[in-house]
Amino acid sequence: MNAVKSLIGGLALSVAVASATLAAGVDVNASSTGLAMQGYDPVAYFTVGEPTKGDYRITTVYNEATYRFASEENKAAFDANPEAYAPAYGGYCAFGAAMGFKFDGDPTHWKIVDDTLYLNLSKDVQTRWEGDIPGFIDAADEKWTMIADKSPEELQQ
C-alpha cells in the first residue's frame, strides 16, 4: 500500500507541473491549445498497432479537443465513430483514473484492451497497471463517473 501511496504522490507532483498546460475542458486531456493526445493519431493504434503522429493539416474536433490524423482515411474512420477510437478517460492516465486522479496520459505508453485504447503516464505506471488490468479498468470506470467533470487540480485537494 505504501508503494501505491508513493506512486500517487509522485504522480500528483507530475500533475501539478503539467496541469498548467491543460485546456479548459476537464473531461479530455488536451494541451492549452486544445490538442488531444499530443498530436498522435488515435486510429493508428488500431490500424498500424503503434503510436503514430498525426498531420497538423488533418484534424477534427471531438469533445472540444482537436485530434490529428496520419491520413484522411483515419480521420474519416474517427469521424464516423469517435467513441471507438478516442482513448478511455479522455486520454488521462488509466492507472491514475483507477486511483481517482487525472494524470497526463502519454501516447507512447498505451494498450488496447477489449477494443478500447488506454493511455498511461509513464513506463513504470504502465507496468503497474498491467499487473491487474481488469481490476484497474473496473476501478477507473467506477471512479471516472465521479471525477470526469473535475479538473486535475480539484482532485489534488
Condensed summary:
This is YHS domain-containing (Seleno)protein. This protein has 157 residues and is of the alpha+beta class.
Distance from N terminus to C terminus (CA atoms, Å) equals: 20 Å
Q: Give unreliable regions as ranges.
A: 11-24
Shape: globular
Number of strands: 4
Compute the average pLDDT.
87
Beta-strand residue percentage: 15-25%
Q: State the helix count.
A: 8
Number of domains: 1
**What would you call the structural class?**
alpha+beta
Taking the sheet with the most strands, its summary is: 2 strands, antiparallel
Query: What string, H for helix and E for strand, traces the elements in order?
Result: HHEEHHHEEHHH
Percent range for helical residues? 40-55%
If strands are numbered along the chain, what order do they take across the biggest sheet? 1-2
Compute the CA-based radius of gyration.
Answer: 15 Å
